[in-house]
Each structure stands twice: as structure tokens, then as C-alpha cells.
Amino acid sequence: MRRAAVTLGAALAAAGCAKSSTPPDPGLEGLALAAVDPGVAIPGTTLVLDGDSFVDEPWGTTHLRLVGRAGGADVDARVRAAFVDYDHMHVTVTSGLLDELGGDVDFVGDAIVEVVSAEDGETYASAPLPVELGFRRQLTPVVGQLQSGGVIFVNDPISVEGEGLLLGGAEGSSVAVITGCFQAGGAGACAPIAPVEVPLVPETAFSRTRATFAFVPRIAGIEPGVFDGEVTIENRPAEGSITAAAPAAAGYELISSAIFRIEPSVASLGQYVFVEGGGFVGPGDGAGGATLLQLDGTFTPTGAPSGAAVDLLLVPEFVAGRTVRYVVSEDDALGAAIDLRTVTGTFEGTVTPIVSFGGVEVTGDPAAMTLGIAPVKQVVQLDFRPSYVESLRVFGLRAADQLVRARILEVVRAAYPGINVEFRTEAPADFALYSYVELHGPDPNGMGLFGYDNSPGKDVNNERLYDRLGGVNALTQQDGYPGYGGVFIESLMGFSQHPAAGEPLPGADATFDEIFDPIRPDGGTPITAADLSGGLPDVSDALACPAADREARVACAIRVMGSLVGTTVAHEIGHSLGLANPMGEGFHNTGDGPQRLMDGGADRPFLERAELGGFRAAMFCDTEYDYLRSILPTSEPADPTPRPVCF
What we know:
The protein is of the alpha+beta class and 647 residues long. It folds into four domains: 6-135, Immunoglobulin-like (Sandwich), CATH 2.60.40; 142-255, Immunoglobulin-like (Sandwich), CATH 2.60.40; 262-373, Immunoglobulin-like; 379-631, no CATH class. The chain is 16% helix and 35% strand. It has twelve helices and 37 strands. The strands form seven sheets. Strands 1, 3, 5, 6, 9, 10 and 11 form a seven-stranded mixed beta sheet that branches. Strands 13, 15, 16, 19, 20 and 21 form a six-stranded mixed beta sheet that branches. Strands 23, 25, 26, 29, 30 and 31 form a six-stranded mixed beta sheet that branches. A hairpin with a 5-residue loop joins strand 19 and strand 20 (243-244). Helix 6 (401-414) crosses helix 10 (550-576). The longest helix has 27 residues, at 550-576. It starts with 5 loop residues before the first strand and ends in a 16-residue tail after the last helix. Residues 8-21 and 474-479 have low confidence and may be disordered.
């Protein structure tokens, strides 16, 4: 378990000095450092700090402090750290830092993250982490073992084991220089090969002992044959001179491309189908490098007694020598042959790789393939931006970030029952086409909006699948609409009758203040880690809030905030799917109906959004729900909950 941060003021208090009674900065309560990598650094190396509760500017200024011994001397060095995310910071190693530490030295001591909080002016420090770090002006590679012999595909990774390898990026890279000759299958002579340089890729992010380089087609082409030669590993640092290891002998038998496996076996429009095998080539290999997939077989629609012959040539995306991925798309031969939005079914047949490079084309052996086409699915990523996290401070909720997020997801998912939509908090690796919603703090449009779908036009029938609700959209700006999209939580403070800034909204509600006043920093006591350590009471009953005791008040604030943001997110996603009134004019329902999620902002008062005062969760009205079920069908039964009428 990681220890929480302490302030320097607290340390002084322990020695008998006075200490401020100001509550700790909730964003830095859990400040901790768990790891510093890599273990050996040169000028240009990025030290990666792994920990908890890091903050970005302007909420704090962060340094890494190294206290211990290096080169036989005591050292106490501080270097600026840059925010990456709440669990990672980066520190750039410079020649100046090496000078401060004593040059080529081994440091043994403690690493500490120190943050000067902009919230209270205190300096917070993580618990010391014992570390051993090597600092060097340069590294010379040593090769202990080079993979040699056996059968390989073109673009296969060749493993290298040794010492002193570079990690890439600003510090520089290690490079394999390959020389030798290649004897194509059936040819009598071994044709000489001019030196080819290929960068090494570390086996793991911080490994200086194990790496690979791709046996790229520039070395020996793509035809079957035998390579015989040498590999020399060179270090090419950003600062300093090139160093090299002794050459190592290498020999391989190259074979034609092949396909071993297709995953997943069922996919929908916009989803990736990963093809695993070997010998694949991509545009990045140059000289017209490409891999095609020839499909031959039969496609049988769901429920049909028989299928139709299929003969398609598909263009996948090159991932690596062993992997290509194909996007189920309306814009290629498969999409032209099948209506991927309305037709489901199964393709059965063979898939054949066709690889080309430098004017040469090689066809591999066909492999059996079965691929099902599933109904259209909408994947939505919710991206909680740093400004969202820090704006929780305004409400006193910064320490409860993860609990508020969990409630937001609960509310959003509950709004789409029986609809083929999936909500995630990480960028999908299995879908090329997905929607993206940014959650921010302030409204960058300066209009006090709760949320805004800035995708262009009304996407009836969800034709796009890839709407981006976030950033700036020049097309919407040209139409005279706000340019920045997403969900903006600071605007929700307008429901207060005494907001932290600006004027109350016409719908300001005293209940909002009953919920949030006890924890707001401008009058109450913000939630701290101690409030959350013992668990919270269940306040899911709409009549349980506002509450009288501290534990229930904390639980109510978390639940209400999650409801306010969650219903806003669900509403904006509804817009991106073509609502409201998808077959007519306008973007909201006409008039004010009870519990209707797609009513206009003025018709969705605080109590309804917060699910308080007897209000149940807002929902899509009857024809909206039927529309969503039609464009995003699923085998799940329809939600039986009675719904308000749309008209």
C-alpha cells in the first residue's frame, strides 16, 4: 500500500513549529512515488516516474529530488518534472544534471516527488523511495547473443541480447547494420547485399539488455531463400559519438507469407479483424510494399437457406510482420457486396495473403476462414480530461474523482438499455470507428454550456459512427455555432443560488446548495481521503438526499454530481446518434415532458437531472427508443420500463 504525501509544514509541526489548519490539498493527499525508470540514464533519457496523485500545472509545480550518494559524494539534486497523467511524470536527463551528480556515477539513495501546491501554497512530498540509478555520458553496446539460424518470415523480429542498448526517443537509438548475401530459392549464386540499417526496438520500455530488429524486405526482398551475413549493433546517441559492438554472424531461411488465425470470428461495421500469420509487408517498408487479402467462399445471410459466392480483394492495415488488421467497412469490396448496417451472416471460405515489394509479388497459401458479420455496434469513449478532474475542486469533490466517474458511467449505461452501445474510458483497440466524448471543467466557448455536440449536422441513422464531441470543429464555427464540444462540469455550478463565480441560472435550486454547500471550499469542508476510507452509506433512494450527517452528505454529493454529469453525457450522445426527432426538424423534444432525456436544457430542471425529490431517471421517450433499437440492434430484449411519449 502506498503511503500518502506529507507537507513540509507537517514535518515542521512534528518538530514543534506551528502549522496551518488549512485542510490538505485533496489532489495531493495520495501523492506517492512507486518507481523511477530506466535504471541507467544518459543525456536525453526520459526518466519515467510512476506513482499516484500527480498534478498538472497550474495546480502544482513538481520536482524530482534525489538525496543520497553518487561517486563517493553526498548529493541533493532537484530537477523539474513534467505532468503526463495522474500516475506518471517525466524528467529529462541533461548534461547539466550529470554535472551536478558528478558525471559517470552510480546514485544510491532516495527519490522523492515534491509538489508546491497552487491550492494552498504548501510543499507536498511523497514518501522516500530507495533507488539505485546509473548516470553515464554515453553507452557502448555489447552483444551477448544474436538470434541466428532457423526459418523466419520477412519482417520477423530478430532478438538481440546484450548490454548498453539505447531506448530511442530523445536519448538516441541503437541500430542494426546488416550485411551479407541472399540466395533466392533455386538460384545458384548468393547475391551480395549492400549494408541495411534497421532500428532496434527495446523488448520492454526500459530494457537496455534485450531488443529486436525487424528483418525488413530491404535486406533480402520477399521471396523464399537463404540469407548469410553479419549484424553489427551501433549506438547513435543524441549527444556524443557513435559506438559499436563487434559484428555477429547471422543466417536465416526465409519462407513465403502465411496466415494462421483470424480474430475475432464475429465482427461488426467499424470493428477491426486481426489477421495473424507471417511475412506481411506494409507501405512503411517502401518500394511499393503492400499486403492484400483474397477472400474466396460463400456468404450466407442470417436465416437464409443458402449463401452467395464471394470473391473479394481486401486491403488491410499493416501492424507488424506477423499481424495485419482489416476494418469492416462500407467503403471497400465487402461493403459493396453486403449492406453491413442491415445484413448479418457468415462468410465461410479461404483467405490468401498476397505480398508485394519492389515490383515482386508473392502469393502465400490459402487458409480456411470463417467470419461472422454482427449487427452495428456503437462504441463510445469517455475521456475525463485534466480540467474536468481539477474542476471537481469547485464542488469539493476532487478527492472523490473515481467515485464520481463510476456514478457517471452507471447513469450513462442505464440510459441505453437494450441498445447496442458500449461505453469505455480507454481508447478502443478493437474498433476503428467509435465516438469520443471529452469531459472538461470550464466551457471553452465561454457560454456556460453544460454540454455541446459539435459534430457537423444531424447524423440521422448514425451514419458516421465516429463523432467526436470535443476539441474544436471548424465546420460548426462556420455555421455560427459554438466550436468547442464536450461536457463542461463547471457550468453546473449555475444551479447554485450563490455560485462560486458568475450569476445563478434561471433554474437555480436551493436543493443544489443543500447538497453541495457542506463540502464546497468556499464555505464548507471539501471531501478528503478520510471521508472515503470507511465506505459510504447507500443513498440510491431518491428521497435520501439532502442528508444531515457528514457520511451521507458526502455520498449524496457524489451521487448527485454523477447524475448531473451522466445525464448530460447521455443527452449529448443522443444528439450524436441523430436525436431528438430524427426524422424531423430540431434537436430537442417539443415542450416539457416528464423524464424525457432529450428535452431542451430549460425543460430539464435540477431535481430531474439529479434524480431528487421523487424524480426517476430521465430516459428516451417512446419513438426515440424505438429508433435507437432500429439503428443499433441487439439480441437483448427491449427494456420493459414504460416510457414517456415523444409527441
